[in-house]
Each structure stands twice: as structure tokens, then as C-alpha cells.
Amino acid sequence: MTSSAQIPFNTEAWPIWLQASAPQIWFVCVALTLGLTAYALGYTAKKMVRALGQRRYSNREEFVGSSWDLAAPVVQLLVFLLAITAGTEIVGFAFADQLVGYWPKALAGLIIVGAAVLLATWINNSLRSLAQRAHGKNRVDDTLISFAASIIRYAILGVAIIMAMIQFGFAPGSLIAIVGAVGLAIALALQDTLKAVAAGFMIAAFRPFRIGDWVRIGDEEGEVAQITPFNTAIKQVDNKVALYSNDQVWGNPIINFTRHVRRRLDLYFGVHYDTDLDRALNVLTKLANDHPQVALKNETWAGVHELGDWAITLRLRAWVPTKDFIQVRADITKSVKQVFDKEEIEIPYPHQVEYVREGINLKRTATALDEKD
Q: 309 lies in which domain range?
């Protein structure tokens, strides 16, 4: 410590042991005061940046992850370092000159990282927005664009971190060797993660599904909401989002319900054995073809599927637009019940008949009474 950091008041009347430790105590108090003051200034600056940024967005969800949101902690760190440097210079700590000497390097590194974060975020959001517009207007496949946006973002951030480390005096050759060694260690430690990345490239290249498709992966199904190099997000029917690592997705059977523009309904209905089958089949065919969403009406088919234990099972097949599949299935199922009731075509259900022989019951009763006596 220099003389300017000495205690500003007389300590001769203090005990000797307290006089000996007073300079250290004073130094700690001053350092804590500087640190807390610098933190408060940085925190205030971050709040101001976020307050300015939130005015540009209609809701918080749009603001989170935006350039303003990412720039706020960078501004906080810059203000913190500036306040610490200015405070140590004013107080007169010996290491103040060293902090001032590191400022250009730290500032350059922070500028590089901050600019990279803003650039990566802007490119990522722009590509995703472009993909969504293209998908909405021209039904262009936006899966590969979204995947490429994530890759570009990670690449920009990785290069920026290396450039920032060079600003602090790391030799480029040594830094590349260190990065290579660290990368090898990470690759060995995170083999499962690398499997997910490799599977992500396979999904992006072969595209078994696209963003917006309704798929079943394993036992779960939902809408593909996002595909990144590491995982795939599936939005389920109740608006829950399930995240699957890409290796889990690629290693499971994938059923894509929306790959084609049409799906074929395959419905089964049971009728009584006394039913006029030709009449029932004609009712099913007409009912399906009368629905406005049924396509290729000449390919609508109805026939006998099975002679069951308690009913004859009829089968109905009809082509419908994929996007209307659920609603058309519900409409036709409802209409079948209503029309069958109107046409007096019985839909049976299992009956259980119990036969009781009176003599056996009386005998059992008498036996029970004898045992009781």
C-alpha cells in the first residue's frame, strides 16, 4: 500500500496489537467499499440498459434473449471495472497502475465478446425470422435454416472467445494447442453430447421431420418446435415442451403424421348380427362422402372387417386433409352414432347373462344351516 492508502486518523492511543493490524483492516474496509460501490454502479447501469431495451418490445418474452438483454450484463461489467479502476486510482492503491495498464486489453476483449454476442444473436434471430416468413408464405422447409442459425451462433461465439484471449497476451499458436487439448479432453468426457451433435447433423441432413410437423418419437408425440445441434423440442398437445437429445430422437422409431398433405381415416364400427350389412355399408360410405373435408370421394371404402363374438365389425376408410384429420375423425364418429340410431342400426355391446339353478342354491343353504346347527 502507498502512503495515500494510510489510515487518515491518529492511532497512537490504540493498543499496540490494534495499531499493528490497523493498516490491514483499513485496506480491507476501503477495498470492500470500492467493491460494493462499483457493484452498485454496475447494477444500476444494467437496470438502466434493460429499462431502455424493454421499451422497444411489447412483452417480456420478446425482450428475453434480445440484444438489449444480452448487452446489459456487458455494460454492468464495464461500469464495474471502470469504477474499480477509478476508485483505486483516487485512493492510491499500489496496484492502480497495473489496473490502468490492463484496461485497454480488457476493454478490447469485452468489446470483441460483446460485439460477437450481439452479432450472433442478430444473425440467429434474423435467420429464424426469415425461415418463419418463408415457411408461412411459401411453405419453404425452415428446418435446415434454423439448424444452421444455431451452428453459426456457436461458431461466432467460439471465435470471439479465442480473439478475446489473444488480447490478454495469449500466443495464437499456444492458444490453438491449448484449445485442441481441451477440445480432445472435452470430447472424451462428453461422448454422449457429441453423439447428440452428430445425430443433429443427421437429422438436419436427412430431415425425417421438419419444424411444425406432428411426430411420434418412441411413446410420445407432439409438434416439432425447435431443432438445435444438441436437442429437439417437441410441443405436446397440452402445450408442454419435451426436450429430447438428438441421439435419442435418431435412435427411436419416428412416425411423421404430417409429412403428406393427406391422411387416410381408418375407422371401425360394430353392428348387430341381424343388421342388413349392405344397407349399413352404404350408410357409412354416404356419410363419409357427405363430409365437406373428405377428399378423393371415389376412393372412400367400407367393408366387413371381422365377425366377432358379439358384433360384426365394419371398416371405413376415407382420405382427409392432414391438418383436419382429428376434427374429421371426430365428426364422422359422431355422425355414425346419430345416423345409426336414426336408421335403427343397432350398435351392440357385450352382455353378461348369469344363470342360477335354484336347486343348487337351496342345497347350499341347507348345508350351511346344518353346519350352523
A: 262-342
**Cα separation, 141 vs 145, whole angstroms:** 8
Using left for φ > 0, alpha for ψ between -120 and 50, and beta otherwise, residue 299 falls in alpha
Beta bridge pairs of residue 244: 232
**CATH number of 335's domain:** 3.30.70.100
pLDDT in tens, 120-137: 777 777 777 776 666 555
End-to-end CA distance of the chain: 109
Q: What are the residues whose beta carbons fall under 8 Å from the beta carbon of 78, sequence distance 6 or more? A: 42, 107, 110
CA gap 100, 235 in Å, rounded? 51
**Tally of CB atoms within 10 A around 201:** 14
Residues 232 and 94 in one domain: no
pTM summary value: 0.49
Distance of CA 364 to the CA centre of its chain: 67
C-alpha cell at 108: 478490447
C-alpha cell of 23?
493498516
Q: Which of 53, 73, 48 is nearest to 63 (CA)?
A: 53
For residue 271, with 0-12 CB atoms within 10 Å meaning exposed, 13-18 middle and 19 or more buried, which class applies? buried
Q: What's 307's DSSP letter?
A: E
Torsion over CA of 150, 47, 73 and 31, rounded to 10 degrees?
-170
DSSP state of 272: -
Match 429430447 to its residue by C-alpha cell: 244
Is residue 317 very low, low, confident or very high in pLDDT (cuts 50, 70, 90)? Answer: very high
Single out the residue in 236, 256, 276 at which a domain terminates: 256
